[in-house]
Amino acid sequence: MARDEFLEPVKRLLAERSAYRCSNPDCQRTTVGASIVDPNKAIKPGVAAHIHAASEGGPRFNSSQTSDERSSASNGIWLCEFCASLVDKNHGVDFSPELLKQWKEIHELRTFVELTTGASEAGLTGWCEEFEGNWKLFVKNPTIVPFYDCVVRGFKQENFDADFGDVEVVFGTIPPRQSLDDTIEYGILSSDIFGYPLIDLEYTDVEGVHWLRHSSGKLAKIDFRRPFD
Ligand SMILES: [Zn+2]
């Protein structure tokens, strides 16, 4: 049986919509770059992979698809060469069409957010400001996706004299920017905080991945959460 391969324009579209990065949320590897030796060449180790296989017997093959559907962009996902190989192992049993479609949808949303906000690392930012005599914690969500279970983890100043337990005030969903005008305010008594600390925040994104936003602006994945009470 013939394989319903993607044509070059479809491959390019998938690559561009993914910003030439692997769509596996745990990979995100860049799949385009410069050749150091040849100034006229780029290196592009990315793959337009099939969500449902290109031919019968392949991983996740869907017999109800037409040939056109099988070779359309909607049946493709951009991956690095390792992840393209990974998702097809054992006939793709560990990587369902639904999972790959979720990867693709979230990754394309991510590239859109990065494109429109200029942020290469989307995520929450928090800081404290004096407001009408009291200190308030401000949390900003610059992206179009909500974040969950945000807590204050610490302050930038090493010798900061505050009881962190008293300022763990952000909890729940931090919605998209459209619905809350960028900023959520939480009141903190001025007696609790002395100075203008930038804060570390811990939160969860739509994929269920836990993040730590350091006050330096650095974003890090974390694989543990301190217990909420
Ligand atoms: Zn990858």
Automatic annotation (TrEMBL):
<protein>
    <recommendedName>
        <fullName>HNH endonuclease</fullName>
    </recommendedName>
</protein>
